[in-house]
Amino acid sequence: MTTTTLPRPDTAAGDRPEPVLSVRDLRTAFKTSHGIVRAVSGVSLDVYPGECLGVVGESGSGKSVTFASVMGLVKKPGWVEDGEILYRGRDLTRLSDRELRALRGKDIAMTMQDALTALNPALTVGEQILEVLRAHADDLPRGRAGRAEARRRAVEMLDLVGIPSPADRLNEYPHQFSGGMRQRIMIAIALACRPRLLIADEPTTALDVTIQAQVLELIADIRARLGMSVVLITHDLGVVAEHCDRVVVMYAGQVVETGPTRAVISDPKHPYTQGLLDSIPRLSDLSHPIRPIQGQVPELIDLPPECRFIGRCPKRTPDCRTGIDMRPAGPGRAARCILVGEETEA
Amino acid sequence: MTHMTTDIRRDAAATTATATGRAAEPPVLLRTTDLVKHYDSRRGLWGRITGRPGSLVRAVNGVSLDIRRGETLGIIGESGCGKSTLGRAILRLHEPTSGSVVFDGAEITELGRDPMMKMRRRMQIIFQDPYASLNPRKTVEDILIMPLKLHGLAKGKAARDAAAAMIENVGLKTAHLDRFPHQFSGGQRQRIGVARALILNPEFVVCDEPVSALDVSIQAQIIQLLAELKRELGLTYMFISHDIAVIGYVADRTAVMYLGEVVETGRTRDILAEPRHPYTQALLSAAPRLDEPGKAARIKLTGDLPSPLNPPPGCKFHTRCPHAMDVCRKVAPAPVADAQGHMAACHLIDGASGKAEAPA
Questions:
Q1: In whole angstroms, what is the distance from residue B86 CA to residue B36 CA?
Q2: Which fold has domain B1-43+55-122+234-360?
Q3: Is the CB of residue A64 less than 8 Å away from at least one CB of chain B?
Q4: How far apart are CA B236 and CA B69, in angstroms?
Q5: Which EC number applies (chain A) (predicted)?
Q6: Are A247 and A259 in contact (CB under 8 A)?
Q7: What residue numbers bound the domain in which A122 lies?
Q8: Which pLDDT tens digit goes with each residue over B19-65?
Q9: What is the pTM of this model?
Q10: Domain for residue A230, yes or no?
Q11: How many distinct structural domains can be found in chain A?
């Protein structure tokens, strides 16, 4: 279902265009009463123009915190300890609040998982779209003409995300819409200034499957039409398989595997990715037994340098105690496992 | 005509359950007939003053189902389809408005307090949210002993021993008994929820979205645990889920619900291989597929689920159905079943073969 408008950026490394977003060794921590929780520890990833990147992981993997850091939304008791967040060459971690605010919503926009809490219940949806346009659309004329133009664009956005009779519904409040419609409205707000990069944090987790299919198709369609890049944060590998060109698998605050979606799903290199794939019931092959990953995600406090999956890994060796960096694992692929190099060499 | 699961089933059942000679079928453990649960939203003060005819939420609207001993019946549907209400109405946690629930030969909707209490020992429920369904101020041991005390089955050391045995059955340790729910992860809490439901040694368990709140890798652990316990203890499950892949994995037979009604039932493998109701087809095609992305021809449903306060006339699915015809807007389709008990309620289905006619 994915429509790729640009050449797939996962072939030979030399052909790659410059990434829109480049995260380098990002570390984000939160101070808690139990100690410092290192929610994101050394995440690096790239988002290329026009691609849909899936970021997949379970609760506590750090996928949402990574992108909250990108948006400058990590607030006390959390902070970005270290790392670079390069948006078209500019390091976002060095920008002032004001510079960041100018960028956010205009160049990079984010939609949140729970549309009911993310939308302001006291403002009509029209006011919430106009707010973004007023803050960022610098090509609007002044005065009445500008207001009329902003309203026209707001109607256009609601129409784009498939809300029937958009001009009337502009004056309604979030509670007057269904869950799927609210998610569409949040996407409309995010797209109001035609950003280059849309970060969609679990856009369909709260929705029913038939509505999920509608919303994901909408995002794919708009991506193709506007040529923007999309980061789809999700816990659902099925959604990634259907909609993303490339995937980043996160576990316990780290990236453990990355590569073209098809390749990662058909031949996962990291034991965690393998375990995740084995634990999902597949409609295509129900006789295939599901095998859960034993144990639980480690607490992200005072972690030793060892591989973070060691406690649950069926393939662990004594060498895993030393910890490991990402290793190349085929074209456009990498995985954080000591078995990867050995396999390739053998 | 062995075990159809709709209104027409009653005629068939009246003749004989073994009409086709397949005598090996285990007996029906639980049967609902025309089960209805309406919530009256008129109960407000203003409604009582004006006495105006209030609006009824038709959460469950005439559901007839059979569950045979030892099988898992999957109930699938989207939010608001009434699947959880159905589970609660069957256990009389929410009193049914009308209809009948027969459990092991006894009509339970007419039971008084004490006989119902006795019956409950045999029918239990596992809830969706392992965070909200455990009392945060009780230790795990207290939580597990409570049902034994309530039913007067054991107390003191005997109860504690039973709790210790049960906690190990669900993959936790006896050392966990002194802890409080907040000291556990979601998956562990759900194990406690399972232990609490099974400590009374029930025969029938309603599993109400037991894995929906859990991460994928943990979800598989709980599915596996429920399957093992079912085998060891000879349980019968009604497994409610919105995830068709999970249902496909756990359920022998499946009922598909839409707006308070069952629109299709049958053996799970038949429903997955050959879904007959357009809603089931849409549900299947909307499920993201891991290893064959885009393979399912996407059936696009437009619009949202209509409000159960004001359900559409005729076939309730006609407002979103890609094949809706004039008759669908006026007449509710009758359920049609084939010899295998694969039933669907849709005007497209040919009464003779039980199969869907090619939609125009």
A1: 8
A2: Rossmann fold (3.40.50)
A3: no
A4: 6
A5: 7.2.2.11
A6: yes
A7: 108-194
A8: 444 557 899 999 999 999 998 766 666 666 766 666 788 899 999 99
A9: 0.85
A10: no
A11: 1
